[in-house]
Amino acid sequence: MNIKSVIQFSILCIPSTYSFALGLNHSPIQQVTLYPTSAKIERTIPVQAGEQLVTLTGLAANFDINQLQYQSSNIEVNAVSHTDSAIDKPSGTESSQLRSQIEGVKKKISEQNSIIQAAELQNKFLGNVTEGSAPKVRQDAYVAFIAIDQAKIEKEKLEQRLGELEQDLNAIGDSDFNQRTLKFYVNAKQQGEIKISYLIPYARWQPTYKAELNTQTKQVKLTRMAMIAQKTGEDWNNVKLALSTSTPRNYVQQIQPQPWWVNYYEPEPVRPVYEPAPAPIAMAEMAMDSEAKSRSPARNNGPSFPQFQAADLNFSTEFRSETKASIPSSQQQIFLPLSAEQYPAKLSVWVLPKQSTQATINAEIAKLDSNWPSGIVKLYRDGDYIGQRTWNNNADEALQMSFGIDEQIQVNVTDLTDKKNPVRSRSETIQKQQYSVQNLHSYPIQVTVFESEPQSQNGKLTTQSTYSLVPSATTWNGQPNINQWQMNLEPKQTFKLDVQHQFKYPSKGYTSGF
After folding, report:
1. Per residue, what are the HEC states of 455-472?
2. CATH number, domain 3-89+177-203, options 2.60.40, 2.40.160, 2.30.110, 1.10.3110
3. DSSP result, 12-24
4. Which residues form a coiled coil (predicted)?
5. For residue 285, is pLDDT > 60?
6. Minimal CA–CA distance to 230: which of 372, 383, 36?
7. Rounded Cα gap, residues 482 and 449, in angstroms
C-alpha cells in the first residue's frame, strides 16, 4: 500500500479517540548541530499505546520537508504527511513580545484617532448651533480643539514608537514563517517514540579567535570562540549543541568522466585588416565607466556556556558539548568559548622599506592542527586591542601573526640616485636607495628587513640587483627572490643597507612595476 492510500484510509477510519495532538512543548528540541549556514534540529515525539495518529503542531515551515528524517522505537510508522498554514505563525519569544507591543501601540493609536474624530464631530456640531450661550459654545469648542491637538501629539509619538518596534521585528525576521503541522500515522501496540531531524536555514556559526601577545613572557594565548546566531522562529531552550565545520548541501552533483574531443581546422584566407580610426565615443564610454567605478560603493534569556570538545571526523571537525545551552531566536549574536591555549612565540620586528616605513611586531608560533578552522582573529598586545584580521589555517609552515606597529623602531628610506645625472635613459633605469633601521627601545630586539628582488615577466626586460650586505636568506615561505636580513639590534643601534636595482629594456614600448 502506498503512502497516499494509507493517509486516505487513516483519515477516514481512525476514530478521534486514537488521534493525539502535540505541541512543541511536548516535543522539545534535544540536540542542535550547527553548520556554517544551517542547523540540524533533533527532537523526540512520544507515542502512547493504542494511538494511530500523532500530530505535531507549531513548527516553523522554513525547512525542506524532503529532508525530514525519522526513526521509530517500539512502534510502526505507516505514513507521514504535513500541512502548512498562515494562521498562528510561530516565532521566538523576542518576536512574540514585539508583536504584543505592536498590537498594544496600534490599539492606542486607534484610541487617539477616536478622540480626534469625536472632537472634530463636536466642533462641527457646535458650528451649527444657533441658540444658547456664546461663551459656553466657545468654551466647548476650545476644549475640543485642545483635545485634538493633544491627541495628534500623542498619536505622532505612538506612530514613531510603532515604526521602531516594527523595525526591530523585521530585523529578527523570524515572524513571517507559516505554521507547519506533521502527522504520523502509526501502529502503536505499546508505548514508543519517534525521533525526527531536519535541516533548517536561518541559523549559523562561525569560528572567531582572540590572540593575546605578552611581549614579556613571549607567549601567545589563543582563545577559540564560536559565534552563534539563529532566527529560525523557535527558541532553543536547554539543548545540547554541536558545532560542525561540514557544509550540508541540498543537491550533490555527480561528476562523471567525459570524452575529450580535439579538432583541427584549415586556415582561412587572410583578409586585409585596416587600422580603425580613433573612436571618441569609445573613449567617452571608458571615461563613463571609470567614473561609474569611482562612484560605486565599496563592498532575553541569557545563554548558558557549555564546554566543547573537538572531535576529528573523516571529512570535518565537530565540537561537541554535553552541557546544555539556550539560544533564543533573535537578532543577537552569541559568542561561546571553546578553549584557550598558550603557545611560545618567536618575536621579531618586520621592516619592509619598499612598502612602508612603519615596522610591525610579528609573532611566530608552531603550526596548529586542523581543529582550528579559519576565521576572524582579534589581536591584543600586552592587553591593548590592536585590530582584527582574517586567518586561514592552511599554511604548511609556522603561523605568522602581526601585532601592530612598533613605534620605537625608526625606519628611513634615503634616495641615493644622483639627481644631477640620473641614470634613466630610454633603455635603462637605475634605482639606488639606502634603508636605515634604528632601535629606540631600551632593550635589544630581533629585526628582519625584507626586500623583494624584481623579477621580469618578459625576456626583453632584464634586471640586476646588488646589495651592500649579503642577505641572510633569499627565500621566504617557499617564495624565491624575497631577501631577508636578520639581526639583533642593541638599544640605539642603527642598521643600514644600500640597495641598487638596474632595469634594461628596449627603447620602444613601455614598462611597468618600477
Report:
1. CCCCCCCEEEEEECCCCC
2. 2.60.40
3. HH--GGGEEEE-T
4. 148-175
5. no
6. 36
7. 10
**What pLDDT is recorded for position 280?**
42
The separation between CA 189 and the C-alpha centre of its own chain, rounded to angstroms, equals 49
Segment 341-386, tens digit of pLDDT: 899 999 999 999 999 999 999 999 888 776 677 888 999 999 999 9
Pull the grid cell for residue 115.
478622540
Question: Scanning the structure block, which residue is given the C-alpha cell 634603508?
Answer: 435
Task: Give the domain ranges of the chain.
Answer: 3-89+177-203, 93-172, 236-249+302-334, 346-371+396-504
Position 89, amino acid: K
**Helix, strand, coil share (%) of the chain residues, nearest 5:** 20, 40, 35
User: Using CB atoms within 10 A of its CB, is residue 139 exposed (0-12), middle (13-18) or buried (19+)?
Assistant: exposed
Q: At residue 55, does pLDDT exceed 90?
A: yes
CB count in 10 Å sphere of residue 379: 22
C-alpha 468: how far from its chain's center?
A: 48
Would you say the C-alpha torsion 267, 272, 277, 278 has a positive or negative sign?
Answer: positive
Cell digits of residue 476: 621566504
CA 57-58-60 angle, to 5 degrees, is 125
Q: At what angle do helices 134-172 and 93-127 cross, to 10 degrees?
A: 160
